[in-house]
Amino acid sequence: MEHESFTKTEIDYLLKRARYGQLSVGEPVPPPNVEPFDFHGANRLSSGQITKLLELHTSFANQIGRSLSTILGTECTASPESLEQLTYGDLVKQFPESTFFGTLDRQVPEGRVLIQADLALVLPMIDLLLGGQGTSGETIRHLTEIEREIFRPVIDMFGVELSVAWAPFLETVLQFGHIGAVANLLPATEKIVFVKFKIQVGELTGMWTLILPMLLSNALTRKLEQQLSRAEGEKSEENQHRLREKLMDSCLTLELYLPPSGISVRKLAHLKTGQVLVLKPRATDPIHLDIEGLHLFQASPVCCGALRGAQIRRMLPVMKTDEKEAR
Fold it and tell me: Angle 47-72/145-166 helices, nearest 10 degrees?
């Protein structure tokens, strides 16, 4: 006997007929629910995550400006311009020929952070490191091996400051790996996140790009969101504590009164000044003590010197209607 093979749609139809009974003859089988999938949008950061990452690297940029000023002996500033997502191959196509790459290798987990910079700004920086004026040359050329070693402390500083900026969210060690003009440091199809920084050295301005593999940026984003969520929770608890302290100093209306007691109109009509009206509740029975109209306690009236008081006898259960009113 040959075995028949069923499609998923036919299997769903049979299960539906078994669950709900015989379907009418000729009833069309409902088509499967198909939704388009955006392959380009997979593993992409949301706009909120991009904002958080950009804010994180703002403080890092400020520190880079101060550190560069110390190393180069001239006033330097750095500020993040944008954060975007692309494949590494598409990003490399945007770089001019006059560019160079520095790498920072991560130890935990393994990975590589790339730094791209225009040689038009790198060469004056090397001139400043050698004691020159930091002027821009007429021709842009690639670095010699000696110039790469001279510029290495700048890349090292970049890695140290980046590790410090990430420390509250991600434990990592960034170590110098490579300096050169090689563009194929990552697979062309690998998705990356890159942050562009505007670097100013004296009167010269250039762009540096920090390139992060998507695996690293996702890990950093998760830790960042966890820290922010924890901080918001602590802030919420602090606000609740502050609200409780405010409530402790507030004043509430308190009433101590007898429960309703029936009396005839005849007795009311014959009441006179000084006459004692006898009510049904006994003098030893506790009476109601209400706070802001809520029945919370039973108490007995007492004297506290020249003042009146109430001795709490019993706490009353709060009714659901009273809970709604209290809210």
Answer: 130
